[in-house]
Amino acid sequence: MGLKTPLYELHKRLKAKFVLFAGWDMPISYTSILEEAVAVRTSTGIFDVSHMGRVFVRGTRAGEFLNYLTTNDVLKLQTGEVKYSLILNERGGTIDDVTLYKLGEAEFMLCVNASNREKVINHLKRFSETFGVEIEDKSSRLVQIALQGPRAVEILEKFYPSVGKLKFYTFKTFGDVIVSRTGYTGEDGFEIYIPPEGGVELFKKLLEFAKPCGLGARDVLRIEAGYPLYGHELSEELDPREANLSRFINVEKDFYGKEGLEKRGRPQRKLFGLKLEGRRIARQGINVFKGGKPIGEVTSGTYSPNLKASIALAFLDKEVQRGEEVEVLIGNKAIKAQVVSPRFIDNTPRKTKK
User: What's the pLDDT tens digit per position in 118-129?
Assistant: First the structure.
């Protein structure tokens, strides 16, 4: 038995199939994973992502503190804006990838991965006294709902008028509720941070307009969008630049882990997409070959119902070019695959920075 979000009983009534994920009992699907993934691309889906961590940082030096402990430029962030960033260890590996919200000049919120919440909090607390900041974990006091898909604006404006005016990676507060135009699916949409009682009621109301979706569909969608997942494309050992995240690492500033990252030298691999022949799925760790020579390995794989193809993300030698044909060894069978962009689908309302 794992931890349960405030929406757990509602998921049970919706006949969700559960899986233990990062210590939480979470819905993996309600109908079918592939059906839910299609619903998000063609209409809109709703996800309970309350297992994620929500950590608040307060203090007059909060911006300076986070600018040192994350790789992106926090000091350029305006109130109401969100940045994607990385928290590195001393070796330049990734402790976690986070979204950082500027609530005010002296207050920020970090949305962190469920499996890394305690690790991130402990890391932040190592430096909090030096900068005179307060770290508060409000994960248990906020429900996090993701509404994702082409109808997300139309639906959410029924409850929070004018959210359609938000630019991607910005947010607006409605009392004690934060609504951000962010997501992890490659679709337009929102993430809503709301106290538990109101969150349960909102989820129920949104069910009238959107299909409930589980973690299975979320994984399919993030692979289609080429988004990294901690434990697959990111870890404390892996170089985050290999995952094509260099644009979120500001080498012009000082940050914790910068020296360790520089000591690694230039990455010799990068993240590519693979489109496989047939429907067999390439799982994490499977080797990729070209002309009989190993050139990398798969980090994530799935069947994409939206592309009607088996797809994968893979770290390959940086010299590999898109359009080349390679082979993926699944069992004892070599499956042909084409090297493509890792971003198979991107319907988000921006093509620039996160």
Answer: 999 999 999 999
